[in-house]
Design brief:
By secondary structure, the chain is mainly alpha-helical. About 80% of the residues lie in helices and about 0% in strands.
């Protein structure tokens, strides 16, 4: 990831995920609660990431008043499932949306990771049962980072490579 704040937020999440074993002392019920908590944090990370990447792009490509307008619009994105990622990419450039859709088609596990985090966050927020685990959250986070890097590469016109998980 290019953005310093996103890198820092990602590192904090990874550290917290790694420390979960220390906090829970092997207590499965407690680990389940941590999984829910981490799911909510990762969903917030995805909200931040989608707006931050595109705000960075606009900041480097447009006049300040356009940046201000775009930032207000992008900051309102909440609970972005994979469909929202495609929709936002398409609003910037039709090809970007098509390429991201193809990426999700070629690598459905990345689409599923984002959708799983958002669906589970919704369940947690509304007091419903969910079986999201700390391990699953970490896996979804890492796959989601690949999507974030994909859209960063689109915004900077770099060649897009997919990391194997």
């Amino acid at each position: 990831m290019d953005n310093y704040d996103l890198k820092k937020q990602h590192q904090k999440l990874i550290k917290l995920i790694e420390d979960t074993q220390l906090f829970t002392h092997g207590d499965m019920e407690l680990q389940g609660h941590w999984g829910k908590y981490l799911c909510v944090l990762v969903s917030g990370f995805l909200e931040n990431a989608i707006s931050t990447v595109y705000i960075d792009f606009v900041s480097n490509a447009a006049a300040p008043h356009i940046v201000q307008y775009a930032s207000k619009h992008l900051d309102k994105i909440q609970n972005p499932k994979s469909k929202k990622f495609v929709e936002v990419a398409s609003q910037f450039k039709k090809e970007w949306g098509s390429d991201l859709e193809k990426f999700f088609s070629d690598y459905p596990e990345y689409k599923e990771a984002i959708d799983s985090i958002m669906s589970n966050r919704h369940q947690v927020a509304h007091g419903k049962n969910t079986s999201i685990s700390v391990h699953r959250v970490r896996d979804c986070l890492e796959k989601s980072v690949c999507v974030i890097e994909f859209i960063e590469n689109q915004c900077s016109n770099r060649t897009i490579t997919v990391r194997s998980q």
